[in-house]
Design goal:
The chain is 44% helix and 13% strand. It is of the alpha/beta class.
């Protein structure tokens, strides 16, 4: 036996398991008891354990082969095997395998595969390695942290030699600048609020480290607008530094450091990030461009049945091991920094969508049917002997989840496609859970054929049971039926046909400016959809009592119509002003609560004075005219103090949103309600006319009172508007949707950030923000590529019910016809049901001369 080769393939935890001792003191005592030196005792224990393991394995493995057909160091089947590979060390992940491992098994078992798929991509080793081998690659990955890592790696691999050299140099320079840049940044208070909402009073960082982390988030947001890739690489460096800089440590699971561990010297957060930036720069400088670009198909691999035929030639994957690990709890700090955790319920949402591989994943809300008699017997044994009552259900639900994944994957496979699964077994309460064998039986029942079971690594459980990591080699069944291309008739077909024929929003009462609920006019806003059109789209595509989302919600026209009609509605927007206006419509405020907010605002204004800095900053805001030119000096002071009030106390209740939205409306206009000189109610054109004092409190009281006096239909259901970039990870609570109905910014539309500059300033934008933040808006990003919609389409596909529909209201100009362009982007996830266009002659100008270059509106209907 070659003990060196054996020991080299084992982790320190596995070596301790072989030796049978968990501490050095215990090891010394055991060695002395056996009259051996420590070294001799260790060698003796390894030999003994290996011998017992070898005998046990030969009895238990019906598919094990005497001669392994593939030759590589067993450590390559672990994450540590890729430590010398570029990009592999960007984030220390405990699970996974090396690029060499993927290359080897593809060469051995799928040499002709053109399209390689991984339903559990982890850090992206399979799709990236397959792409390097000039194969088409696609994947699923549920964890937003891992999604981000894969996406950023792919971007790095996609750079030309010149671009790589340039970004590597910039990253090295930035690693030196970083400490000073972080020190000069403000704290990200939204991230701070999320920390308190998600983690409550948990103290994961020392105060000065926590402040550095919040400042790093603000710095990244600033950089992201002008240099997106640099910002993403900085995020990677931060993600790899969060736990080392915290009071936590990752030892299998994430836990608090012990007193001894806390006393060990540690590096400052900023130094850790700088060091990682150096590593990233070095890696980028030596990699080569990918011949093909891997594609994320969906996050949750259990949703593969919703996806059009993928035409997969081979699968290489390592599903979550049934080892009790909670993969989301272990990455909760990183997920928080990525803004994927905004509330305590988000962790629960991820747990519900995850493969049930850990005790904390167990919940009665998950379906858990017994797949076969072998699982039934296993669960019964675990119920008798497991130390935790959740373990039997965990095991049962794990195999149920895996059966769902493989059943959804099966129709996407070419007949006979090799399916290569890296999986390990486990033990609970002395009961052996033979995961490879049970999974094999499940797949055989689904029509897969087992060809080989190759032992990759061996280990022992704490109580002496022989365990193994194996490669299952299966072939997909021959299928005569693929995903159906014949579309079943759905409930909205007839109503949609009638709409296209009659265009009801263009005639009669529906064509009138004031049609609809009065709160549609809560705050004037350019580019807003006609309420009558929104009303028809909702009534056609969202069933009574149904659920819908508008990922470009703006001031909430579509979701507000849905709420009025008794539908459950959500909206996203990246504009803080739009989010608060929509919230004021979707959440019913009371008169008493609004009066309380106005009184607090009044007292704040009376008790304070604008600072020199606030006055100077106001002078720097210059678009159609300088901000200070719009107001009487006394009114300007009140506006500045009201802005400060809402920056200190961000709107968090329906009443606060209502008062805030009312203030946004009266900031500028051409009637006596406005605080400004004569301007325009939609976009603040240069002011004219006399300068006179106008009381902010009096006018906001009047506006709020008028808004609260409206009537509400009995059918109204409150909705939610969320400050959210639609291209980033959607909140977990938004699921099981009947429809996604939205109107993204038109390609040639007026830029929203310019038409709404005064409201954005009041919502917190500083002068420098107008130079950088607009670059993160989709209307700017889509000018470079429509692939920015990829993540919107795959998330919509996942969150929609089977048979759910996505409807996009789009612009058509001489430069760009958005509907066919986005239909092409949507192809991997949706079928195009219809593209329909109408003239924009019915659209009102609101006195604005330049309405953009759009000549028609188009409707793209997807399912």
């Amino acid at each position: 036996m070659d003990l060196y080769k054996l020991a080299k393939s084992l982790s320190s935890q596995e070596l301790r398991s072989y030796i049978g001792q968990r501490s050095y003191a215990g090891l010394q005592e055991a060695a002395g008891h056996n009259s051996m030196s420590v070294n001799a005792f260790c060698l003796h224990q390894i030999r003994e354990t290996e011998g017992r393991y070898h005998n046990s394995v030969q009895q238990d493995l019906p598919f094990a082969e005497a001669d392994t057909p593939i030759q590589f160091d067993p450590i390559q089947a672990t994450f540590r095997g890729g430590l010398n590979e570029p990009l592999h060390e960007w984030y220390p992940y405990l699970e996974g395998y090396s690029p060499e491992y993927v290359s080897t098994i593809l060469s051995e078992f799928a040499p002709k595969a053109k399209h390689v798929f991984d339903p559990f991509a982890g850090t992206g080793t399979t799709p990236i390695t397959a792409a390097q081998l000039e194969r088409q690659a696609s994947y699923c990955e549920l964890n937003p942290l891992l999604q981000f890592l894969i996406k950023t790696k792919i971007k790095a691999f996609s750079l030309s030699d010149r671009e790589r050299a340039k970004i590597a140099t910039r990253v090295r320079e930035f690693s030196v600048e970083l400490p000073g840049r972080i020190a000069s940044c403000p704290l990200d208070m939204h991230l701070d609020q999320a920390y308190r909402d998600v983690f409550n009073t948990s103290r994961f960082f020392e105060t000065h480290i926590y402040e550095q982390v919040l400042k790093a988030r603000s710095l990244i947001d600033e950089i992201a607008c002008e240099h997106p890739l640099l910002a993403e690489l900085l995020i990677v460096a931060v993600l790899g530094s969060l736990i080392p800089a915290s009071n936590l440590i990752r030892r299998g699971d994430l836990r608090y450091k012990t007193e001894t561990e806390l006393r060990r010297p540690s590096r400052e957060f900023r130094d850790l990030v700088s060091s990682r930036l150096g590593l990233i720069a070095n890696d980028i400088s030596i990699i080569k461009p990918l011949p093909t670009t891997p594609r994320l198909i969906c996050a949750d691999s259990r949703e593969l049945s919703k996806i059009p035929f993928l035409d997969i030639d081979a699968v290489v994957t390592s599903p979550p091991y049934l080892n009790g690990t909670n993969y989301f709890r272990n990455t909760k700090i990183e997920l928080w920094f990525l803004r994927a955790l905004l509330t305590s319920q988000d962790l629960t949402g991820f747990r519900l969508r995850a493969i049930t591989a850990g005790i904390n994943d167990v919940t009665v809300d998950k379906p858990s049917t017994v797949i076969n008699s072998a699982i039934e017997r296993l669960v019964k044994r675990l119920e008798d002997r497991a130390y935790d009552t959740r373990i039997p259900r965990m095991v049962q639900t794990y195999f149920h989840d895996m059966a769902v994944v493989m059943n959804g994957l099966r129709p996407h496979l070419q007949s006979g496609a090799p399916v290569l699964i890296d999986i390990g077994d486990s033990a609970y309460g002395g009961v052996h859970v033979d995961t490879p064998n049970i999974l094999t039986k499940i797949l055989e029942e689904q029509g897969f054929t087992i060809k080989k079971e190759v032992v990759l690594r061996r280990r022992m459980s704490r109580n002496g049971l022989a365990l193994r990591q194996v490669l299952l080699v299966l072939h997909a069944p021959k299928l005569n039926v693929r995903h159906s291309t014949n579309r079943a008739r759905v409930s909205w077909d007839r109503d949609w046909a009638v709409f296209k024929k009659n265009l009801p929003h263009q005639s009669g009462d529906y064509a009138k400016r004031n049609w609809g609920h009065p709160l549609h006019s809560l705050c004037s806003y350019q580019g807003k959809m006609k309420p009558s059109l929104a009303s028809h789209l909702v009534s056609i595509f969202v069933p009574p009592g149904g659920r819908m989302l508008d990922p470009f919600g703006g001031v909430g026209t579509i979701p507000f119509e849905a709420a009025l009609q008794g539908r459950v509605a959500w909206a996203f927007d990246i504009s803080p002003a739009a989010v608060q206006i929509a919230t004021a419509k979707l959440q019913r405020a009371t008169t008493t609560d609004c009066e309380s907010v106005v009184l607090r605002l009044r007292d704040f204004i009376y008790e304070n004075r604008p600072s020199v800095r606030e006055l100077k900053e106001a002078e720097e805001i210059k678009f159609n005219k300088s901000l200070i030119d719009y107001f009487h000096p006394r009114t300007l002071e009140e506006v500045l103090l009201a802005r400060r009030f809402f920056l200190i106390y961000p709107p968090n209740t329906p009443a606060e949103s209502m008062v805030f939205a009312s203030l946004l409306h009266i900031l500028h206009g051409n009637r006596p309600y406005a605080l400004s000189r004569r301007s325009h109610p939609i976009t603040p054109f240069a002011p004219t006319g006399p300068t006179e004092y106008r009381s902010l409190i009096e006018r906001v009281q009047t506006k709020v009172a008028r808004s609260l006096a409206v009537e509400w239909p009995d059918s109204f259901i409150p909705g939610n508007s969320i400050y959210q970039d639609a291209t980033e990870t959607w909140p977990q609570s938004i699921d099981n949707l009947d429809a996604v109905i939205t109107s993204p910014p038109f390609f040639d539309s007026t830029r929203f950030y310019l038409t709404n500059w005064m409201r954005l300033w009041f919502s917190g934008w500083a002068p420098k923000d107008f130079k950088h933040k607009p670059l993160s808006f989709i209307d700017e990003r889509q000018k470079h590529t429509f692939n920015v919609y990829d993540s919107i389409f795959w998330q919509a596909r996942e969150r929609l019910k089977p048979g759910g529909v996505m409807v996009l209201h789009l612009g058509k100009s001489r430069k760009c016809d958005m509907a066919p362009r986005l239909a092409e982007v949507a192809k991997p996830w949706f079928k195009v049901v219809d593209i329909f266009s109408e003239s924009v002659g019915h659209c009102e100008s609101h006195g604005i001369r330049d309405k953009g270059a759009v000549v028609e509106h188009s409707y793209l209907v997807l399912e």
